[in-house]
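Lecture 7 notes: from sequence to structure.
We start with the chain below.
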Amino acid sequence: MNLKPGDEITFEHPQLRLGYVSELYDQVRDSSAPKQLDLLNRWFPGLFLKERQSDGTVKELPEYIDRERMIYVTRYHGRLYLGSEPRVTQIAGRLIGTASSNQEKERLAGEYIQKNTARRLLGEIELLPAFLEHTEAMIDELNETQKKQFHYLIYMFALATADDWYARTVYERDEELYAMDEEVFDSVIYNAFFQITRYDHEGLVYGFAWLLLGSLLRNQCGRLTRTFDSSFVPLFRHFSEDGSLQSSLHYLIAPQDFEHYYTGDDCDQRFPGYEWYCDSCHAHLNEQPGFDDHLEFWQCRACGSINPISESEVYDSEEHWRLSQKTSSQEKEESSETTGSE
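Predicted structure tokens for the same chain:
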């Protein structure tokens, strides 16, 4: 694919569906896209599929080996086929956007898969990092030219998808298969585009990850957008004695009855007595909802900048901070000059 930033790109009815999103990756590789179950397993390996042998026994896949899978298939001569459930291919096809029919029973089964997957991504803390690592590994298979093309392609895709979605009537949007609520759609596209416009490798990975999650989980992705900001950092601590709804409601009624705590290595602030300010807009981060200095990074609620929270970012005074910024800028200039002379 010969694509440069600034080239005009036309998408024919772009949709936030896994089949369309995954095809962007194949376009920059000039390769054909896998179909249905193979495509699902490409981006979410082992999360859905468990191989069933021809004799009826089940072969565990290496990823998430002790986890329950939602879809059972049989591999024969290198290709995946259905196990005992004949509706699986159609369900998967609708989830990723390659099947056109829409039987109610299969739609409900697909929604159950979406709901279960979102719940597991939130409840099983190792799954989301594993998905992000896998997405990064897939992107790292691209060479540097392909990565630049891929970045521009998903940049334009996010814009085109937003324009196309809002160009449709409310009725047309509501009639779409696995129709998305406006709030969820906006959150997914915003989170993806925020990362894409960071113009760095991590932003490319996170931006594409949001497109993948939103395109597969649809409305169920709202659970993730309410829990994580665009860089997959948890948004809020949940104050509760035992994690129950009743305890949470009690906190809202009488917060003075609860001690604010963190479930990490200590029970107090990580940096007690320190005030944190955004490096970009200088907003006071401590006052922003959900701020927690135990987090490694915090996304400023005022301007959206990502701020590292670590001991190396602690300064005795504003003058000390300004001096460090000046020194860092000088070191970057010197490094650039040295690289240029070589």
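Points to note: Strands lie at 49-52, 58-59, 71-76, 79-82, 297-299, 306-308. The longest helix spans residues 144-167.
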